[in-house]
Amino acid sequence: MFKRTKVTDGTATGQGPDAENWDGKEVGFRKKSKVPGVMITQYIEKLPEGKSHPDFTRKPIALTIQEGKFAFFKAIVTGDPKPTVVWSRNNGDVSDPARYQSKYDPNSNEHTFEMPHVKPDQADTYKCFAKNEYGQAMVTVVLNVIEVGFKMTKAPQQQAEVANCNFKKVLKRRSKVVPKAEEPEKKEGEIDPKFWELLMSADKKDYERICAEFGVTDFRWMLKKLNEMKREREEEQAEFVKNLSDLKPIHINADGTASFELEFDLLDPSSSIYLYKDGEMIPYTKELGDKMKHCLRKVGRKYIFSMRDLMPEDAGFYQLDVEDVNMFSTDFKMVDFLVKIQEVKAMEREDAVFECVISAPLSKLMWFGKNMPLEQGDKYDIEVSEDKLIHRLVVKDCMVVDKGIYAACAGIKSCNAWLVVEADKGAPKGKKTARKTTRAGGSGTDLQKVAQEQQQILDKEREERKEKIKAAREAAAEAAAAEEPEKTADSGAGKDKGAAVKVERIDKTSVAATTTVAGDSGSGHSAGKASGGAKQDGSHADAGGGHSAGKASGGARKDGSIADAGGGHSAGKASGGAKQDGSHADAGGGHSAGKASGGAKQDGSPADAGGGHSAGKASGGAKQDGSHADAGGGHSAGKASGGAKQDGSHADAGGGHSAGKASGGAKQDGSHADAGGGHSAGKASGGAKQDGSHADAGGHSAGKASGGAKQDGSHADAGGHSAGKASGGAKQDGSHADAGGGHSAGKASGGAKQDGSHADAGGGHSAEEASGGSRQDGSLADAGGGHSAGKASGGAKQDGSLADAGGGHSAEEASGGARQDEPLADAGGEPGITSGLSDIHAIRGQPAELTVKMNTDCDGAWFKDGEPLKSGGGISITKDANIHKLTIHSCRDTDSGLLRFVSGDLSTEGRITVGDVPEFDEDDLHKFSKPVIVRVGQNAAFKMPFQPQESLTVSWFKDGTELKDGGGVKIVREPNHSRLLLRDCLRSDSGEIKIQLKNPFGAVEATSQLIVLDRPGPPEGPVETVETTSSVIEIKWNPPKDDGGSAVTNYIIERQERGHSLWTKLGDVSAEKTSFRDRNVTHGKKYSYRIYAENPQGLSDSLETADSIMAGIMILSGPPGKPKVVSTSKTCINLTWTPPEDDKGVPIIGYQVEKRKKDTNQWLALNAINEPIEDVNYAVKDVTEGAEYEFRVSAINESGAGDASPPSAMACAKNPNMRPCFKDPEDFLVVRAGNSVRVKISYEAEPPPHITWLKDDEPIAPWINVINTEGMSQLVIPSSKRSDSAIYTIKAKNSVGEAFFDVEVRVTDEPKCPGPVELEQTVYGKVAVSWVPSPDQELDDRLYYVVSQHDSNTRMWKTVADRLFANTYTAHNILPGIEYHFRVYAKNDMGLSDPSQSPTWGANSNRVPISSNGVSSMEISFERPPSILVPLKVHTPPKGYQLYMTCAVRGCPTPNVSWYLNNTCINSDKNYYITNSCGVCSMYILRVRENDGGEYRVVAVNSLGKAECSTKLTVRD
After folding, report:
1. Coil, strand or helix: which one is 719?
2. Backbone dihedral angles phi then psi of residue 408, each to the nearest 5 degrees
3. 218, 548, 698, 1354 - which has most CB atoms within 10 Å?
4. Are 289 and 166 in contact (CB under 8 A)?
5. Is 61 within 8 Å of 110 (Cβ atoms)?
6. pTM higher than the cut 0.90
């Protein structure tokens, strides 16, 4: 059963956040989350900077889980300040820590809500709240729980909910299509509800097919009813969805999955969607994808249900519901192949035909060729016959490339075959042959005949359904016409109280005398006939015990004498009939759901409320004089007691079906206190009376109910609803001994009286016929109130006076006692049947015996199906005193029938059925007895054919335990065979498999064996060492307990030497030998062994020796020398020692060092024995600063660690005192103005020194920060200025000494350009270049000048002077006729300034300009933007090698070229030597480092544009 959750929006009382922290009163602004489904409320309009409201970055995922599993939700929330997370649920609280646990993982920032061992009542909608002071985020998540098994507490819970009027929970959500297990037995011809569900979801073109499938032929009636149902369904659907469209029935996809689709819009997004298969809810997933079999995905408005891993049991009727309303229904059928496609061999350019026949009509099969789906087209023809049973695929114009496997798929069933295309050898080479007109292939069988036979089967089934529907309609019409009840008074709810009736004698073989008198209507719900008796004198004719749904009342009498409405089990009110003289009208035995009370009487004489089976209280009627008001026979759940009387007379507590004891009321004079009819588990007896009058014992007891003994013998009734024998009480005068009220499965009859006085056999709820008794004078003997399918009869009377059969509810015979006016009359004195007939099953060909036992020696007769039987013809009838026997010597089919034994007015009957014990065919039994052998993980299948039989029960057993369908067990029951499938067998599944066929005639069994083969179990240990010497080790083991189903063939032995990780195979031994001698061992070394057992299925797990085994005797080395402490520090203590003087002749592998802390007694090993220290020195790093230790050393050889050395002296883990010293400091630092200055100095000193920083021998300014850490001091100037340039001194001082170090810090910037440049020629060929100093010259003593020269011949700028600290320069080789230009740069540690340009010097500098005399001339310009002539190349130099990288650049004016590494300019980086000569730009790296790798880019820029190129440098190791 699948328990779904109820999705609601609100939070119920007692849930959610508590009142203190989560009062829910904050009113804020709705915000949208990036995660769908998260609701955010922000409390303030504008958040402070850096603060945020809560939000979910990961919300919980909806979960469907099986009962008893571990369920949890996870969420990740964000927000500043950190939000508080609280979980709640809609319909309950989560305060029980045993069921709900909230956890938080600070590492992953995950909030987890866990529910161990989840139960069905925890299925609900859960909420997760995240809140801080700025807002709240909330998200909901649904938990569905799948219930497992039947719950004993479920029915009482539902009853309690009904009692509390909580119908909403009782009326559980169910599909309109009932599951097969709960489907009620259909009436013949009834239409399956699936018919209407399919029609409402189908297209109109499919109506005819669906009607034909279900046998419906009245289309007019169908369409009329379908339109009515559609209107109702659309009204229901409109409450939850809109725009329902595009319904696509279920179909098989190319990937092997099945799916159906529909489109709709949910009015409420939180509405739940359910899936059903054959009326049973199935779980599905939205989140887990392929982890579950069923999946429902939503794509836009489209909902797609898909199902993977298809099996035959997936066939069925699928429905999709939204809440309680069905949206779509579709039928998924499995079709089988009657004729499969066959292999086709075709010649090239010939057509190939694949054809098949399926078991049910299908409009289209899915065809595949070489794993690709095929469609109708130029290459393929797909043909379907008219009856849709024959399907063909034609591959047209076959070529060699068409060769391959072709398949036809119908649902999950498929068949495939090869298409082999042979080349046409007779075709001329190089020419294409003509297409052939022939076809190759086909099934080779008469497909039309197979299809016709299958169609006949389908038509026959369809006609049978039509006939059933037609017969059902005719029967319904006849039943409607016969609803008008007949006016004659038969034994059941007659309407005419005075109608004439026929009284039928109990002996149906003879005609009973009938007489017509005024009689009572008896309303009997008996399978026989119960009728009121007709009386000539009108005396006392009772209509007892009728189970009528109407009103049961006594008949009218002429003399007004007693007319009882006895025992009516009416749903209404049962009351006594009206009498003219008002005497004794009883309302007896009414099994009413209301109140049963006695009728009103005019004279106030007794009006009894007898026998009412009411759920309320049954009480006596009201009387005017207060006399004789009986509360008889009430089947009440409460207490049934006699009515209160003023004089205390005759208050009866009759017939109460109480769980307690029902006894007569106490009377002052002791008269007439009845204990009637109590359904007690004890014994109900009449009350004792002083005068002995009228004490009734009407108890419905499991024991014997008998009337009380009376002194005067008057009126002792035994009205007990007993499982034993209820008989009338003995009376001295023989008057009125009733055997009333017994609800018996046997026979209830009135007692026989000689004087004919009133012996009633009332109300027998027997399994036989209830009829009136036989009388000598022919007067009416009534069988009143038989509630049974048996026979209740009145007793025989000699004078023909009334003998009533009233109300006996006994499990055996209830009869009145025989009376001859003797003081005591018992029921045993009259003939009676003490052991009657019952239904038996006899085996064909075997004898059968039927026995009837009487209480007296009397004659009787046997009848079969109404015909008398006599001895002879294979039948013997014998009588031995009071025992009558009928023996059938050899039972035949003709002996089956209804046998009846009659003795006087007594009879008993039983049915004999002849048949055979189930049996197996000898060949099938022989096949089944052969063992089934499978490997582990495979499936084991058993099949046993048998002859179809009725009432046949098939059971499967494994090792005596019955197997049930489910889990890994699949049991299939067919009419003529049964199959057992055990999936994924384990070794433990091996055992005896037995099938049992059982019917009413006996049972037969067949056995087989299941053998599951597996690897053997590991050999049994422990491994014993038989012998160990310096050259041999012998070991021994035991065979494995489980050989895996096949014998062990051999054992494999592997060995590992101690200290090594490699296992080496030594060899194998036969299965008979369980020992091994290893002769390849070295004395003193230890070895481990492991043994495998092998059989044909593989190797077992290994058996390994518990400890290593040493070859020979253990020889340990002597102690090494005492360790010495070489040096100490706070993190390390260095030791050294000398080897042992005596190594005992065994080589030493290494040493083990142990340490002991001061004031402790425990030595701790610093290395394991299998990790020896090979040298005689060791650095102990596992020390605590300031702690003192001593050490000792042991020598290790092949036998292990020897004796330890004497301990070393105590050594303290601390650094030795030392004067401060600085480690590799830098003494010069240049920083661009505005950047931060960081001067890092590392040092060593013990104890830690005091650090002081000075600036030009003065204390540093307060805004300069000093950060001191262990072993390093750092000076930080956050934002430097030129004035921060100085010499900074660090001073470190401790108790040992002090140290100083100076660092020059220069804060500078790119220099400003020099002033105007002047040119002057002092000597021929030389020009003096002078310029005004840069303004930064006075501020920066490291500033110098660079001079570049340009001439009109080369047209390139070249540096002619560098590092000039003067303001003049003399240029040499100045030639006439050439123009010269000079540029002067200022340069410091930060780089070059902008240039100062000189005037032009040379050929045209003194030329007089010539006028053009008005003639215009066109000027020629050589300016152009930069361009890359030769780009950079890719380089992959090894680390440490030199590298040249070049490119060629052109442009006018000459572009400025910059080099970049990973977008960082490296022109001023000292690690790169960069030149630019005549447009050839080069970069040189002396030694390539790892951080030199990356992307290099050259950018050339002038006033007209920009050009660049790039490459990558990869540094190899």
Report:
1. coil
2. -115, 130
3. 698
4. no
5. no
6. no
